[in-house]
Specification:
Elements lengths: L2 H25 L2 E4 L4 H9 L5 E3 L1 H7 L10 H15 L3 E4 L7 H14 L3 E5 L18 H18 L4 E6 L7 H13 L4 E4 L5 H11 L12 E5 L11 H7 L3 E4 L2 H20 L12 H8 L13
Amino acid sequence: MSGDEYDGWMMSLNENSGVRLRGLMNVGCIAAPGAFNALAARAIAKAGFQAAYVSGAATSVSAGVPDVGLLTLEHFCRVIREVADGSGLPVLADADTGFGEAEMVRRTVIEYARAGAAGLHLEDQKFPKRCGHLDGKELIPTDHMVEKVHWAVKAAAEHAPGFIVCARTDARGVDGFQAAVDRAAAYVFAGADMIFPEGLTSEKEFAEFAAAMRGLRGPNPAGGPYLLANMTEFGKTPMIPVERFGAMGYSCVIFPVTLLRVAMGAVTRALEHLRTTGSAEGLLGQMQTRQELYDLVGYKPGTPWEFGKH
């Protein structure tokens, strides 16, 4: 296969992934649980979800570092590739601040698409970024973020048609609600397919934000851009069901760290039990069995395993 043929093949794969995610969101609001590795991704698909999400926070803490932009583009792409391959689902991925300025944003779009992502989101924080639900965030100028969005959209059009460019604004927690609306409108004008308003504090704010976006240009059949809601735990946003987000006009709800938090809660309790009792016998009822694990990865001992089969 020549280089041009390879690029065409990769473009086709990623166009299909992005088109699939767009098609799902055109029908209704979808839930995308965060997968912190390929095994979690397979579990997400087996549970019947239609999409998966790769969180910057979950990816970072899984590597033993905080979510402050320490990991490389290559590290993120490896996780995206594992999640996409493991699940067979369209994957939306966190790209933090784009790993740099405009040139790196362009490279990020291309590399994420090659890794199998259906789309990514970029945020308007200064580097080093902070979790969207923490105080003390700082924003880059609006025109700086507009430039990043423009470069991301251009890269997607040239290298991965159908790839979704989502712009996240953290302005609500810095300059207020109206600033978030104004910045989002500028990002839509720059070409963003989807908007992610981070850190909204009530259902009323989510509804008002959606209403403000509805009259703008965008691919959402309901009008305006697609809208993304972050249903993270222990943050500034109350727990709102996916169905309610759909009624307000949101296209996708991510659960970025839910599975990791549940898993690590179980790990911590199991380690305490193991330390105090010296035996794992009391944990057997909480474990996935050997057969359940084999079923999840599609493995039958003595039979060749088929990569890419879900």
